[in-house]
Amino acid sequence: MAELLRSLQDSRLVARFQRRCGLFPAREDGPRESGYVVKNYFYYYLFRLSAALGQEVFYITFLPFTHWNIDPYLSRRLVMIWVLVMYIGQVAKDILKWPRPSSPPVVKLEKRIIAEYGMPSTHAMAATAISFTLLISTMDRYQYPFALGLTMAVAFSTLVCLSRLYTGMHTVLDVLGGVLITALLIVLTYPAWTLLDFLDSASPLFPVCVIVVPFVLCYNYPASDYYSPTRADTTTVVAAGAGVTLGFWINHFFQLASAPAASLPVLQHIPPLTADMLVLGLIKFMVGIGLILLVRQLVQNLSLQVLFSWFKVVTRNKEARRRLEIEVPYKFVTYTSVGICATTFVPMLHRFLGLP
């Protein structure tokens, strides 16, 4: 078993996969970060696109789109599991401190997250969590071939997992570890999904817990030997989840939306996609994203100005933004506001504009 684990953690296995997919270092005798040669552009664009499905650009588009155009019930489930697996995965990285694949022999295509540790792959965790949570949550609400849904869930998570090998960001063991941890979390938490879905209407004090507990978890994030974007990314995810949850509570408390339903009385057929539905969905999405980006920019600028003034830091000081007492509060306030905006104010704007 120990020998198998060592082989799965071997960077040479990742390098062989890259070469089979047509990705080579620019110079065989030089550092792999200096450049690369692509000899198969099909795999290159396939896995680069797949890698984006596990990044912020996907979360900030897919999750709000699901809430505004498909089913808020599904978005609640997805956000809940997404935040859980991402926080556990990110914390595990900084506790285990397993390095990423070494270069050479691996070619590394992503520069921003090189400073992060590798085990487990949070891309693999998020992709597995989102695809299979969506599958499980739609089984008792919509009528569709289960085999088709399972195939799509497996294909989505597999593509993201393979993209982490292709981009040189993780070993095989990192990816498998992320998938297995997520599968275990889904199995353990599934019996409580319905209960958790109704907690936001349980008590007027619920918003205090939603804000205080996540903030404390982020502020007491495990310290790293050097700066990496892990803490900032974790705060972004947790704060967005807190904002979304608080938004659901606001909707229920002020009766802005109907109470969450555990399941529909009858399995519903998925309506056919028409041109009118597509145009309406795109309009709602563009309106919502526009408001979210506006709120994000305004709150971020305001929170940074307040924190810089409070701690007497020079404005636009990049290093100062990385300090714990500045990075966590401004990220938390910004993305909590984004979550509230996405679940409360965007639907209100849709109704005001007459967008059903």
UniProtKB/TrEMBL annotation:
<protein>
    <submittedName>
        <fullName>Sphingosine-1-phosphate phosphatase 2</fullName>
    </submittedName>
</protein>
<keyword id="KW-0472">Membrane</keyword>
<feature type="transmembrane region" description="Helical">
    <location>
        <begin position="175"/>
        <end position="193"/>
    </location>
</feature>
<feature type="transmembrane region" description="Helical">
    <location>
        <begin position="113"/>
        <end position="136"/>
    </location>
</feature>
<feature type="transmembrane region" description="Helical">
    <location>
        <begin position="42"/>
        <end position="62"/>
    </location>
</feature>
<dbReference type="Pfam" id="PF01569">
    <property type="entry name" value="PAP2"/>
</dbReference>
<keyword id="KW-0378">Hydrolase</keyword>
<dbReference type="InterPro" id="IPR000326">
    <property type="entry name" value="PAP2/HPO"/>
</dbReference>
<dbReference type="GO" id="GO:0042392">
    <property type="term" value="F:sphingosine-1-phosphate phosphatase activity"/>
</dbReference>
<feature type="transmembrane region" description="Helical">
    <location>
        <begin position="205"/>
        <end position="223"/>
    </location>
</feature>
<comment type="similarity">
    <text>Belongs to the type 2 lipid phosphate phosphatase family.</text>
</comment>
<dbReference type="GO" id="GO:0005789">
    <property type="term" value="C:endoplasmic reticulum membrane"/>
</dbReference>
<feature type="transmembrane region" description="Helical">
    <location>
        <begin position="74"/>
        <end position="92"/>
    </location>
</feature>
<feature type="transmembrane region" description="Helical">
    <location>
        <begin position="277"/>
        <end position="295"/>
    </location>
</feature>
<feature type="transmembrane region" description="Helical">
    <location>
        <begin position="142"/>
        <end position="163"/>
    </location>
</feature>
<feature type="transmembrane region" description="Helical">
    <location>
        <begin position="235"/>
        <end position="257"/>
    </location>
</feature>
<feature type="domain" description="Phosphatidic acid phosphatase type 2/haloperoxidase">
    <location>
        <begin position="76"/>
        <end position="190"/>
    </location>
</feature>
<dbReference type="GO" id="GO:0006670">
    <property type="term" value="P:sphingosine metabolic process"/>
</dbReference>
<keyword id="KW-0443">Lipid metabolism</keyword>
<feature type="transmembrane region" description="Helical">
    <location>
        <begin position="332"/>
        <end position="353"/>
    </location>
</feature>
<dbReference type="InterPro" id="IPR036938">
    <property type="entry name" value="PAP2/HPO_sf"/>
</dbReference>
<keyword id="KW-0256">Endoplasmic reticulum</keyword>
<dbReference type="GO" id="GO:0061469">
    <property type="term" value="P:regulation of type B pancreatic cell proliferation"/>
</dbReference>
<keyword id="KW-1133">Transmembrane helix</keyword>
<keyword id="KW-0812">Transmembrane</keyword>
